[in-house]
Amino acid sequence: MKRIISLLILISLLALGTVSADPGSPWSKYVTADKNLSFHYPSGWKVSTDGSMVAVENTATEEELLMTMIPFDPLKSPQDLANGFLAMLKKVSPNFRAFNWRSQTESAGVQVIFELADTNNGKEYSGLGIVIKSNQQALWFSYLAPASGYYQVRGANILQGFIGSLYYGSASQSPNIDYSVKRAEKIDRNSEAFMFVLEFALGAPFTRSQENVILDELKGSWRFMSEEEL
Question: What are the structural domains, with CATH classification, of the chain?
Answer without folding.
Answer: 2-168 (3.40.1000.10), 181-222 (no CATH)
